[in-house]
Automatic annotation (TrEMBL):
GO molecular function, one term: protein histidine phosphatase activity
Protein name: Phosphohistidine phosphatase SixA
Coiled coil start-end: none
SMART domains: PGAM
Length: 154
């Protein structure tokens, strides 16, 4: 199984609520830059936090890749969600390759949990960073970090 973790692109600093913050122009460009790394991958699903910036990021990736499926809503993938709950949900999925679009600190802790088996070594994820994890089973401590791509800001 391959799990791609994408942190949403740069978002506006303020909105009525944190969940309502939208991507900036730079954020959109950065997400498209990361999406290009997924070109040709046989993604079986794109899942995203219900927050606006994550949904916008997922939609940009979906369009860039020509992915025809709907974006799955992942209410368990918000900034302060428990990564263990995400592991439970994701381990029940049948797709070979999944993209999850989400937030910090959640995404950094989830990656650390899957790679190391605990949350004390989070993987640093800047906005629009893309991590590639894979392993036989989606079990904490049993996935390997294959690549970690950070967008270079000008």
């Amino acid at each position: 199984m391959k799990l791609w973790l994408l942190r949403h692109g740069e978002a506006e600093p303020r909105a009525a609520t944190d969940a309502a913050r939208e991507l900036t122009r730079h954020g959109r460009q950065d997400v498209l830059h990361s999406a290009a790394r997924l070109a040709g991958r046989p993604l079986g699903a794109i899942l995203a936090s219900p927050y606006v910036r994550a949904q916008q990021s997922a939609e940009l990736v979906r369009e860039a890749l020509g992915f025809t499926g709907a974006i799955g809503i992942a209410p368990w993938a918000t900034p302060d969600s428990d990564p263990r709950a995400a592991v439970e949900f994701l381990s029940e999925r049948g797709e070979e390759e999944i993209l999850l679009v989400t937030h910090n600190p959640f995404v950094s802790e989830l990656a650390g949990l899957l790679i190391h088996g605990h949350r004390q070594e989070p993987v640093p994820m800047a906005t629009a960073s893309l991590a590639e994890l894979d392993g036989e089973l989606l079990v904490p401590g049993l996935l390997s970090l294959r690549s970690l791509h950070h967008v270079r800001h000008h």
